[in-house]
Design a protein that fits this description.
The chain is an alpha/beta fold. It contains 14 helices and 5 strands. Strand 4, helix 11 and strand 5 form a beta-alpha-beta unit.
């Protein structure tokens, strides 16, 4: 069964989304190191037929199928069929990836220096030079600094963070970005003081909201207006959806609004869940040096080039560009100011 998009209805393009790899604010110590936001654009009845075909091929008694069913080795043929160039979602799906550790570094540098673009140099140049133990301490301290939930006194996270910055400076004394971070205590104090007044509308450690902005920008390329249907999330309040719209407009994307639905009522969300879960697992494996060349080759066309990814080696494998090209550095170019 195939679907010709020329048979679609005129008007806003309806894009249906789900995510995989959410660990709340615990980005550096959670269960996953990659966050994936999957999206598909297919008619409801077409998606229902594809989900039924997945069920017919796998034959599990589960009420609701998840990506984990397809990732089992005994269902490898179904997984490859789903992602294949002749498969059901080819040309109708997209996934935005976020490397969580780099996302934390990017958000920290943006908060303290007012510009997240320098985070990539810190991640790719200073990280390997300071050693794994020092870097791990810095990452964890940065996560504690940014998280909305206050642990202990307001300045405890600030003190801990700047101790790790000094530790990194001792191993990398000529790093200009570390020197600048060391002088950014006033910005950190101001941020924590604001948290005492109440949680921000847009928590800087949540990758879901910027991922949706990037998803809208992808699907609206060429001037299309996008309407998002998303798996129901407590994070997606009316105020935050309004923020997503402002960010989409800022990026030059057309956003028609968002509807939240329960996954079991929309088979398109199940397809988005399949893609997000598969992409998260494959990307995490690549990040950790375990490359399945067949799955990487199948996944690459779906990966958004604006994914937030700092590790150069793994991004060169995942990048959906020319094989002999130089993978560009993706950026987290979303303005978290409300």
């Amino acid at each position: 069964m195939t679907w010709n998009p020329e048979h679609g209805v005129r008007g806003p393009l309806e894009v249906v989304c789900d995510e995989s790899g959410s660990d709340g604010e615990n980005l550096t110590g959670g269960n996953t190191d990659v966050f994936a936001h999957g999206s598909v654009s297919l008619p409801l009845e077409v998606a229902a037929a594809y989900v039924q075909e997945v069920r017919d091929r796998i034959r599990s008694p589960a009420t609701e199928y998840k990506a984990g069913h397809l990732l089992r080795e005994k269902h490898r043929d179904v997984l490859e069929w789903l992602l294949s160039p002749s498969g059901p979602i080819d040309g109708h799906a997209h996934v935005h990836l976020t490397e969580k550790a780099y996302f934390v570094v990017n958000r920290t540098v943006d908060l303290l220096l007012g510009d997240g673009t320098e985070a990539l140099a810190l991640y790719r140049e200073d990280r390997p030079a300071v050693g794994a133990q020092r870097w791990r301490g810095f990452l964890d301290a940065a996560n504690r600094l940014l998280r909305v939930r206050l642990d202990g006194e307001a300045d405890g996270a600030v003190d801990g963070f700047f101790r790790t910055v000094d530790d990194l400076r001792s191993a990398r004394p000529r790093s200009q970005i570390l020197e600048r971070l060391a002088t950014a205590r006033p910005r950190a104090d101001a941020y924590r003081a604001r948290l005492l007044e109440g949680p921000p509308l847009i928590p800087v450690l949540n990758p879901l909201l910027p991922a949706i902005v990037h998803t809208v920008a992808h699907w609206s390329a060429g001037g299309r207006t996008v309407r998002v249907v998303h798996d129901r999330q407590n994070m997606l309040t009316e105020q935050r959806i309004a923020w997503i719209e402002r960010q989409a407009v800022r990026a030059g994307a057309g956003f028609e609004g968002m509807e939240l639905v329960q996954a079991r009522w929309d088979p398109r969300i199940q397809l988005a869940d399949f893609l997000a879960g598969i992409a998260r697992k494959v990307a995490s494996d690549v990040l950790n040096g375990h490359v399945d060349p067949v799955l990487v080759e199948l996944l690459r066309p779906y990966v958004g080039p604006t994914s937030v990814w700092g590790d150069g080696r793994s991004w060169a494998v995942l990048w959906p560009g020319p094989v002999d090209g130089v993978a560009p550095a993706p950026s987290a170019d979303v303005n978290f100011a409300v």
